[in-house]
Amino acid sequence: MTDYFDIGAIVNVHGLRGELKVLPITDDPARFELLDTIEIFRETGDSKEYPLEKVRPHKTMLVLKLKGIEDRNAAELLIGGVIKVPREKAIPLEEDEYYQKDLLDMKVITDQGETLGILAKIIETGANDVYVIRKAETKDLLIPAIKECILSVDLSEKTMTVHLMKGLREL
């Protein structure tokens, strides 16, 4: 089964010519301009691929024109759909960069061998991401995604080793 990344949500139509308003859910909305086709997944689980004719920014959204979607009525049928790309078409990462979906649910341990819990959520801030580590019956632990704290990530073992800087547990 193919592994997909969500990159956009179809939230409305734009105009009368079948254009779609899309909320980008990717770090790099410009990635849409690199695509020849998009695949739209419906709540029912089915999907369909469409040739992408045009992409343009519109406020905080993107407006997409798809081949075969020529009027507002056809476009309205796609509202609520999620645009996904297969992993092989994802933007390549630099060294020590990871896709968020690969980090979620990862077991987090300290450099002292203590199991802290699982990475349950990633909060995006201006400076750096913050990882929310969750363990039953304890308060969530917030760890900044900086080199001083994140020592290693093992995707095959789904584990992250961290160094708890002084004061992190008390926050």
Topology:
Blueprint: E1 4-14, E2 19-24, E3 37-41, E4 47-58, E5 61-66, H1 72-76, E6 82-86, H2 100-103, E7 107-110, E8 115-123, E9 130-134, E10 141-144, E11 150-154, E12 159-162
Parallel strand pairs: 7-12
Antiparallel strand pairs: 1-2, 1-6, 2-5, 3-4, 3-6, 4-5, 7-8, 8-9, 9-10, 11-12
Gyration radius over CA: 20 Å
The share of residues in helices is: under 10%
CATH level-1 class of the largest domain: Mainly Beta
CATH topology of the largest domain: Elongation Factor Tu (Ef-tu), domain 3
Strand line-up of the largest beta sheet: 1-2-5-4-3-6
Q: What's the number of helices?
A: 2
Instruction: Name the structural class.
Output: mainly beta
The oligomeric status of these chains comes to single chain
State which percent range the strand residues make up. 35-45%
As for the number of domains, it is: 2
The biggest sheet, with number of strands, parallel, antiparallel or mixed sense and barrel status, is: 6 strands, antiparallel, barrel
What is the CATH homologous superfamily assignment of the largest domain?
Answer: RimM
Span between N and C termini?
41 Å
Number of strands: 12
Topology pattern, helix = H, strand = E: EEEEEHEHEEEEEE
Please mark out the parts with pLDDT under 50 across 5 or more consecutive residues, or reply none: none
What's the architecture of the largest domain, going by CATH? Answer: Beta Barrel
Name the overall outline: elongated
Q: What's the overall average pLDDT, rounded?
A: 92
